[in-house]
Amino acid sequence: MILVGIDIGKNKHTFSIIDKNSEEILLSPSDFSNNLKGLLFLIQKLSSYTKSELLIGMEDTGHYHFALLKYLLDRRYTVALINPTTTDLTRKLQGGITKNDPLDSLTICDVISCNHRNKPYRVTKLNRFDLYEQKQLTRHHHNLKEELNTYKNRLQKCIDIVFPEFNSLFHSKYGIVYMNILKAFSSAKAIANADIRSIRKCFELKGQGKRISLSAEQLKLTAKSSIGIPSVAEEIQIRHLVSQIELLENNFLR
Fold this sequence. Notes:
By secondary structure, the chain is an alpha/beta fold. 50% of the residues lie in helices and 15% in strands. The protein contains 10 helices and 6 strands, in the order βββαβαβααβαααααα. Strands 3-2-1-4-5-6 form a 6-stranded mixed beta sheet. β4 (54-59), α2 and β5 (79-82) form a beta-alpha-beta unit. α3 crosses α4 (101-112) and α5 (126-162) packs antiparallel against α10 (232-251). The radius of gyration is 30 Å and the shape is rod-shaped. The two termini are 50 Å apart.
């Protein structure tokens, strides 16, 4: 078995090649750039061996290894991913204290040379890389929902300041009319001072949108008697938050 240890960097990677059986260093630590020229250089060095006898190891950390990993998997190389804590522990057991890229590429070779039944690495395949991408998309969707909840919570805080009676006028929040009003006026004072025709425009629904029982006249009347506090800062926030909520809901979370 021929072992290839790759220490991952942002702009360049360092790799070493060792014969597992004889422990001979076949290629001392060498650098290659994190670009196509560098990847071709690596493949040229690996071409001296058959793919079936190669085991390539790298740390599963950050994101700088993604392009290299996908490049190798597309070409049917066997790649082992290692938890960085394993490499760190092995380095310390070997007497190393600080990270050293050339030496770490050799340390990675030592890790993947392990013959124990419970190996300190996992061999990955192309379908697992695709599964990782699906997990990333799921995580991204979850993060967007968390972001949406944050925006909505901030929006409710602003509404409670400028028009605390606003939500009681609606059976549910964030409908078309609800958002139209907030975009157009953003406070009880703005609604109270607005021309009724401008308010009515917020109630205009295109297509088969569900009509609501609230009228523009009722909204204006409630706004006139509101205990809300006029605030330019809160109104600016409301307009911004409404646009962000609509962007997320319409383009990402449908």
